[in-house]
Design brief:
The structure holds two protein chains of two kinds. By secondary structure, chain A is mainly β. Chain A is built from no helices and eleven strands. In chain B, strand 8 and strand 9 form a beta hairpin. Chain B is globular, with a radius of gyration of 14 Å. Classes of the chains: A mainly beta, B mainly beta.
Chain lengths: ~110, ~120
């Protein structure tokens, strides 16, 4: 158990819909990373937050957005969903948000868009 | 931009045999290198990481990896695999000093253990 929690575990929705994925980092960690894992693209970095502020942005679509709240949990919002958004979405956390640190990954949210 | 190549999509090894998983990276400066393992239905777990110093790094579960700058490689090894090592293995590179790219992962190598 990494100490990172993600909800829900599974999500099934329809094209055009909007969903919110939630991540709670390990106790004491200030930084949260979001990744998307799909069969064709592999594991891709989406976005990073540190103490409520966006720190780094990867291959995140404009239809996707994220935020980190004062209690340090983070939410990833996916809108106007397409079939290709079906994937496993992971969050990871670290204390200081540097890449030298071990990123602790949550169990993921599996999203299926029908 | 940095990139990672894991040339082997699948590898099958007999239990008790040695293992080497290949990883090649592309990055202009000294990279931060990582190996993660993902068991079915699980998140990723760090096996080991390299930043500087000794080019042979030891990790958890009996794994080690060697950084070879001249070959831009960071291959993962284990002298004797166990059935519980069956999983997906990912090599990743991070930008030294941070940067806007996050961790870049390879496509993964699926390890199958034969009894």
């Amino acid at each position: 158990d990494s100490g990172v929690t993600q909800t829900p575990k599974h999500l099934i929705t329809a094209t055009g819909q909007r969903v919110t994925l939630r991540c709670s980092p390990r106790s004491g960690d200030l930084s949260v990373y979001w990744y998307q894992q799909s069969l064709d693209q592999g594991l891709q970095f989406l976005i990073q937050y540190y103490n409520g502020e966006e720190r780094a942005k990867g291959n995140i679509l404009e239809r996707f957005s994220a935020q980190q709240f004062p209690d340090l949990h983070s939410e990833l919002n996916l809108s106007s969903l397409e079939l290709g958004d079906s994937a496993l979405y992971f969050c990871a956390s670290t204390l200081a948000g540097t890449y030298q640190e071990t990123q602790y990954f949550g169990p993921g949210t599996r999203l299926l868009v029908l | 931009a940095q990139s990672v190549t894991q040339p082997d999509i699948h590898i099958t090894v007999s239990e008790g045999a040695s293992l080497e998983l290949r990883c090649n990276y592309s990055y202009g400066a000294t990279p931060y290198l990582f190996w993660y393992v993902q068991s079915p239905g699980q998140g990723l777990q760090l096996l080991l990481k390299y930043f500087s110093g000794d080019t042979l790094v030891q990790g958890i579960k009996g794994f080690e990896a060697e950084f070879k700058r001249s070959q831009s490689s960071f291959n993962l090894r284990k002298p004797s695999v166990h059935w519980s090592d069956a999983a997906e293995y990912f090599c990743a590179v991070g930008a030294a000093g941070g940067g806007a790219d996050g961790l870049t992962f390879g496509k993964g190598t699926h390890l199958i253990i034969q009894p």
